[in-house]
Each structure stands twice: as structure tokens, then as C-alpha cells.
């Protein structure tokens, strides 16, 4: 096989012909391929950057602390959490996914990083917050969530 490729390449170079030839495709096929590519790009942007659902409200924990359990299994569930402004928060992460990407959660607005052991529940305490959105993500910033404070 290697000698065939070498011979074909040497012949093409000696004759001045290109190493490949272009095959014209029907316009409909070109349009369909371009439209499919744009649709896949839009789906990817929606998946990674889009808003997915209205969020889940945190429950009442002991001492007036807002508390919610976030399951980490291929993503955060729930990924959007509604909180009440001016009250402390306890996020309980339950990691089921063995991949290294989700072994850590980062809350950049509070400069907090938390290691998440596999098959364990780990708590993160946050102080009372002002209204707004506070993102959190995995160590590689591929898996994301947001705290929506109202």
C-alpha cells in the first residue's frame, strides 16, 4: 500500500497534476450540509450556554439556612437554583459521576473551591447574597450551574 501511494504521489508531481480531484456536488446537497452544520452549532451553543428551565427553589434548613442537594452525575441537577436574598445558603453536592472533570466545584464570585469525593455528600456554606446570578462550575468549566438570588 505504501509503495502505491508513493508511486501515485511521484507520478502526480512529475506530471504536474494535483494530488486530488474535486468532485462537484449538487447545490441542494451543499445547502443541506451547511444547514445541518449550522443547526449543530446552534444546538451546541444552546446546550452549553443556554438557560435550561426556570430553576428549583432551595428548601428551608435548620437555623434559617437555605439548603438544597445538587446531584453531580454528568452535570448538575438542578443546574439552576433559586434562592432568597439576604439569607445564608448550604449547597450539598452528591457526586455520582466518576469522571475527573466534576471532581471539583468552583464558585468564582465567592472565591470558593470544593473537592467532591465520589459517592459522598459534601456541603458548601455560602453567606447571605444580594439579588443577582452567581455561577458555579466544574474544574474545567464545562459543567455549569447558577445560583439565582431574588
Low-pLDDT windows of residues:
none
Which assembly state applies to the chains in this document?
A: single chain
Structural class, please? alpha/beta
Total DSSP E strands: 11
Largest sheet: 6 strands, mixed
> In percent terms, what proportion of residues is strand?
25-35%
State the shape.
elongated
Radius of gyration: 26 Å
Cα distance, first to last residue? Answer: 67 Å
- What helical percentage do the residues reach? 10-25%
Q: Mean pLDDT across all residues, rounded? A: 89
- The ordered H/E elements are HHEEEEEEEEEEE
Helical stretch count? 2
Q: Order of strands across the biggest sheet?
A: 1-5-11-10-7-8
Give a nutshell description of this structure:
The protein is of the alpha/beta class. The chain is 25% helix and 34% strand. The longest helix is centred in the first third of the chain and has 23 residues, at 27-49.
Could you describe the 3D structure shown?
By secondary structure, the chain is of the alpha/beta class. The chain has 2 helices and 11 strands. It has helices at about 1-15, 25-50; strands at about 55, 60, 65-70, 75, 80-85, 90-95, 105, 110-115, 120-125, 130-140, 145-150. The mean pLDDT is about 90.
Amino acid at each position: 500500500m505504501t509503495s502505491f501511494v508513493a508511486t501515485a504521489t511521484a507520478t502526480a508531481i512529475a506530471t504536474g497534476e494535483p494530488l486530488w480531484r474535486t468532485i462537484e456536488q449538487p447545490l441542494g446537497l451543499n445547502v443541506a450540509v451547511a444547514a445541518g452544520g449550522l443547526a449543530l452549532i446552534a444546538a451546541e451553543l444552546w446546550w452549553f450556554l443556554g438557560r435550561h428551565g426556570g430553576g428549583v427553589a432551595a428548601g428551608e434548613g435548620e437555623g434559617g439556612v437555605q439548603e438544597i442537594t445538587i446531584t453531580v452525575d454528568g452535570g448538575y441537577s438542578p443546574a439552576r437554583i433559586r434562592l432568597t436574598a439576604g439569607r445564608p445558603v448550604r449547597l450539598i453536592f452528591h457526586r455520582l459521576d466518576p469522571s475527573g472533570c466534576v471532581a471539583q466545584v468552583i464558585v468564582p464570585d465567592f472565591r470558593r473551591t470544593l473537592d467532591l469525593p465520589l459517592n459522598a455528600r459534601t456541603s458548601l456554606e455560602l453567606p447571605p447574597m444580594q439579588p443577582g446570578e452567581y455561577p458555579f462550575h466544574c474544574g474545567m468549566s464545562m459543567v455549569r450551574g447558577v445560583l439565582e438570588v431574588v
